[in-house]
Amino acid sequence: MTRTPVNVTVTGAAGQIGYALLFRIASGHLLGADVPVKLRLLEIPQGMKAAEGTAMELDDCAFPLLQGIDIFDDPNKGFEGANVALLVGARPRTKGMERGDLLSANGGIFKPQGKAINDHAADDIKVLVVGNPANTNALIAQAAAPDVPAERFTAMTRLDHNRAISQLAARTGAAVSDIKRLTIWGNHSATQYPDIFHAEIAGKNAAEVVNDQAWLADTFIPTVAKRGAAIIEARGASSAASAANAAIDHVHTWVNGTAEGDWTSMGIPSDGSYGVPEGLISSFPVTCKDGKYEIVQGLDINEFSRARIDASVQELAEERDAVRDLGLI
Ligand code: NAD
Ligand code: LMR
Q1: Nearest to 217 by CA among 197, 189, 201
Q2: Which of 156-170, 289-303, 315-329 has the least mean pLDDT?
Q3: What is the pLDDT of residue 95?
Q4: Is 189 in the pocket of ligand 1 (CB under 6 A)?
Q5: Which stretches make up the Lactate/malate dehydrogenase N-terminal domain (predicted)?
Q6: 108-155, pLDDT tens digit by residue?
Q7: Per mean pLDDT, which of 84-93, 102-111, 112-121 is the most reliable?
Q8: Contact, 22 vs 69, CB < 8 A?
Q9: Which residues does the annotation place in the binding site for NAD(+)?
Q10: Which atom of ligand 1 is nearest to the CA of 47?
Q11: What one-character DSSP code corresponds to residue 220?
Q12: Which of 14, 47, 257, 320 has its CA 20 to 30 A from that of 58?
């Protein structure tokens, strides 16, 4: 049986994340090794030529699953019939900026894109916002798409999740694959909270294995939360291949599910769980099944975690108020 191709729209296709992302989508890593895809690349007029070059390279790979590439500079066309949309195109921060500094620069991009998704995407559209500040950009896009169920708009904290797993594995000598149930709470920013109190390392509680509160507070959390800045400092440009990898992981897990006994972290519209005000796009522990996610319920949140979750959520509320004042939501 031939499967109908899935339409995947990627914005910022000519950027550095786009370059690391598109080849993996076309080779089946986003959705599955048996799922054909059609790519719809969305750029601004100045990015069109470079996007055409990338499309030529995609052609030259002769990917069996890639059934077409179209390039647009009009969001209404770029999102037409999209089943999956990866909103990457935005201005990255440079040295010395916080992600929040990008609010007004990038906010204007996500409102028209949200409207175009509302008006033109397929009924089953799933949206991942990568462009920073990712959570609040997702909120802007979601607010501009009243006909799309709000839960289809998500923001990427999977890179933070993967960074936290990697740091924990390095500290404990565990294999990455032995680490489960790690959670990123809150905003994809320096206030995010990587939580190991419910995480497991080869079946044992991670906080007990680590047993070092000072390392947790003074090394682990800041290393994960400030990793984006450390990469900008070292590379002179923001993370690209690891960000693309996390985008692939995010959508793959959303579509194909979490493993039994594990969960992942996604920025999603809050339903009020864990005291996060309804509607804010905040990172939570989620399980995925049959193309849907659910917040993991019933976790005990200790005082240490509560203070950090609250601080990050407070920042999200402030970002929401700022974009409201700018007329973006
Ligand atoms: P880049 O500058 O290399 O590429 C951005 C591309 O987006 C450019 O080609 C530009 O022409 C295009 N673009 C700009 N406005 C557009 C619009 N309105 N429509 C379509 N395309 C548009 O940047 P990059 O390194 O690829 O990063 C992209 C974004 O991802 C940045 O905001 C960056 O901060 C963010 N990011 C997020 C995470 C995360 O974990 N959430 C990780 C890394 C980077
Ligand atoms: C990252 O976490 O690497 C990205 O969000 C880029 C940035 O600005 O930190």
Answers
A1: 197
A2: 315-329
A3: 83
A4: no
A5: 7-146
A6: 899 999 999 999 999 999 999 999 999 999 999 999 999 999 999 999
A7: 112-121
A8: no
A9: 12-18, 106, 113, 130-132
A10: 11
A11: I
A12: 257
Distance, CA of 153 to CA of 138 (rounded, Å): 6
Percent of the chain with pLDDT over 90: 93
Distance set, CA 129 to CA 11, 85, 152 (Å): 10, 8, 11
What mean pLDDT comes out for the span 185-214? 98
CATH of 6-155, one of 3.50.80.10, 3.40.50.720, 3.30.479.10, 3.40.50.2000: 3.40.50.720
Q: At CB < 8 A and 24+ separation, what contacts does 72-77 make?
A: 72/40, 72/41, 72/42, 72/43, 73/42, 73/43, 73/44, 73/45, 73/47, 73/48, 75/11, 75/42, 75/112, 75/113, 75/115, 75/116, 76/116, 76/119, 76/120, 77/120
Q: Note the ligand closest to the C-alpha atom of 240.
A: 1
pLDDT computed for residue 232 by the predictor: 95
**What sections of the chain are H helices per DSSP?**
16-26, 48-60, 75-78, 103-120, 134-143, 158-172, 206-210, 213-215, 221-225, 227-235, 241-256, 303-325
- Both structure tokens of 286: 């989620």
The pLDDT score that the predictor gives to residue 257 is: 98
Question: Which of 19, 44, 226, 232 has the most ligand 1 atoms within 8 A of CB, as the residue to mutate?
Answer: 44
Domain ranges across the chain: 6-155, 158-319
**Correct CATH for 158-319 of 3.20.20.140, 3.90.110.10, 3.40.1550.10, 3.10.50.40:** 3.90.110.10
- Band (106; pLDDT cuts 50, 70, 90): confident
The rounded mean pLDDT for the chain is 96
Amino acid identity, residue 45?
P
Neighbouring CB atoms inside 10 A of 279's CB total 16
Torsion, Cα 241 253 158 117, to 10 degrees, reads 80
